[in-house]
């Protein structure tokens, strides 16, 4: 079997590597990958079932029955703790279930839709706390319907395709609306054809070439081309899926094998082909990089030709890099910034580091484990500092924090990334106690956000003082933080500015 190496690269490729490892870990096959200092290594045989591992990961990540159960149980717990909020909880539960029933389930399972409709008619009549057990009972009946395998699969796939398609890939491959009727097995087949088949055949070809077996190579070429032709006729595979690998095979077959050339000639030919501009490894089976490979990096290149060498905006990409980028959703951490009140408070976060694969992976795993925090980056920084103060300063200087929120439908992308300058790494290393004096976790998360984005804290301080004064005057807005927190943020701003000027030693010497 061919041995495949994927090297650490730019942050988006590193994100894909972390996602690739997360997917394998979920299926308990991560031991098939060797994590070296700056690359991962695995046998090409791993790719033959990767579509199974991929869908297993995302079907678990976006499991709709679990999401419905958590949402419903949260509302019930809310009503249980607040006896006067039963009607509010009932409305929440009804609206949550009704949306899925009316807009999704009704279209493919009329029987289950009617059952949900009948149960909802009973739920909506619950008015008092005395009926809380009845509410629990009826809600569980609804949850049980959502757990029916074909219902959960369909709803989970819809959610996964909507979120990942809009944020990462658009209408490519099975995200295309024309594939919306396919079940999980159908989608797995499409993924295999689009992302894995070219690689599987490419590395089989490499194995045979390395073995220097011309007859075996000839048989493999003929069998592969014949098989693909039959698959296309049977509509089991699209021409687009095999376009590049088929051309690659035909060129070798027609120009070399049929003309009696030897393996050495074929090796020379392959070595002469263009190389992937992203990884610099694979040759000959290239696509042009587009937003469908990773939407957050997409640009309207046709409208900015003057920015490109020789007015050529095309960048090529090999199937291996396409696959790694296709794993990027599994390498990010969903972050909800509760201190942002409008709808644009959800992002995907990633920590890029100039370090080993192991360290990169463990830091992002740590970030994912903290995703319920108001700002996981905040806690990650504190964790790094608490491990080893000398080492942490170096690590913080070599970290890049990335967060993005894309929408292909809306044709926009918010992409923030920030490195940590020396003074800031020193500040976090030496002044965590100043940050921890801010007792409100929401405010602390916002302070970290401002600092990382190099925004002046005076704007936040002004807003907090204004809110506090207005509350004292007329009490028109609930304020959950104390004056001490505002004072501590003012103090943080002062200390931070001193670090910018020359560090704490200089600040203390002057004072």
Automatic annotation (TrEMBL):
Pfam families in the record: Cas_CXXC_CXXC (PF09706)
Occurrences of domain CRISPR-associated protein CXXC-CXXC (ranges): 270-333
Q: What is this protein called?
A: CRISPR-associated protein Cst1
Q: Which organism was this protein described from?
A: Hathewaya proteolytica DSM 3090
